[in-house]
Amino acid sequence: MGRIIELGLAGGRMQKGYLAEAKDGAAPGIVVIQEWWGVQGQIRGICDHYAAAGYNSIGPDLYGGRTVPYHDSATAAAEMDALDFRAATEGIVRAAARFLGAPQRRVGITGYCLGGIVSVLAAIRLEEFAASVCYYGLPPADLADPRYVRIPLQGHFANADTWCRPEHVDALEAGLNSAGCDFEIYRYDAGHGFCNEDVAQYRPDLAALAWQRSLDYWQRYLRG
After folding, report:
1. Which of 131, 159, 179, 203 could form a disulfide with 221 if both were Cys (CB 3.0 to 4.6 A apart)?
2. Residue 13: in which H helix or E strand, if any?
3. Do the Cβ atoms of 146 and 117 come closer than 8 Å?
4. Is 206 left (phi over 0), alpha (psi -120 to 50) or beta?
């Protein structure tokens, strides 16, 4: 099990995160970005799983301690809409990467839903990360143009997603191709949130497949 840590001050308040540590203190790191529900049990569980797989992992709290119940999509949407994505990425997400030892130690970033947006944004704007893995969430082009992604990026998307829709994934792929980026895109016959065991859209078979693909990617870019 992990613990709550302090990442430093930003915007006049202390920013925190959930840290899960691997047995090897010198292990590579992975920053795990929350869904629009906040840093709830499922996100902490992902950090724990990465620690068990040999990676120090932090889930930085972008909502300042707030979480949203799964049945309250309206509040979750309001919380996400109120988030300053650039400031959060360049502040608390960068602080989490540095806590894990970046840039001296290799650190990756991954995120789900809202966290997918941040995972792509960080792949463009931050020098602390060695690779990014994005799950069913993409920023609009005016926030983050995929042609400027500067690190290897792997993406996992749902063909039946009505929020991060297939045409958004097509645009991402086209932008990455045009820039000659190092990337992998995977599409699954599922709905949004298929890797979250706490929601109705959960697909354990596809979640396991995506997880293994992510581990293979981290092996290549954080340990290779």
Report:
1. 131
2. strand 13-20
3. no
4. alpha
Please tell me the total count of domains within the chain: 1
Rounded to whole angstroms, the Cα distance separating 66 from 53 reads: 28
Helix (H, G, I), strand (E, B) or coil at 62: coil
Residue 96 contacts residue 17 (beta carbons within 8 Å): yes
Sheet holding 183-188, edge to edge: 3-10, 13-20, 56-60, 29-33, 107-112, 131-135, 153-158, 183-188
* Sole residue written with tokens 């706490």: 198
Instruction: Classify burial at 208, counting beta carbons within 10 Å of its beta carbon; exposed 0-12, middle 13-18, buried 19 or more.
Output: exposed
Q: Which domain holds residue 108?
A: 3-223
Burial (Cβ within 10 Å: 0-12, 13-18, ≥19) of residue 71: exposed
Residue 1 reports pLDDT greater than 90: no
What distance in Å separates the CA atoms of residue 9 and residue 6, rounded to the nearest whole number? 9
Interval 35-93: pLDDT, tens: 999 999 999 999 999 999 999 999 999 999 999 999 999 999 999 999 999 999 999 99
Closest CA to 64 of 105, 34, 98: 34
Could you tell me which residues are beta bridge partners of residue 133?
Answer: 110, 154
Q: Is the pTM of this model over 0.90?
A: yes
Dump the DSSP string for 155-170. Answer: EEEETT-SSS-HHHHH
Sort strands 153-158 and 131-135 into parallel, antiparallel or unpaired: parallel
Question: Tell me, what CATH number does 208's domain have?
Answer: 3.40.50.1820
| Residues facing residue 131 across a β-bridge | 108
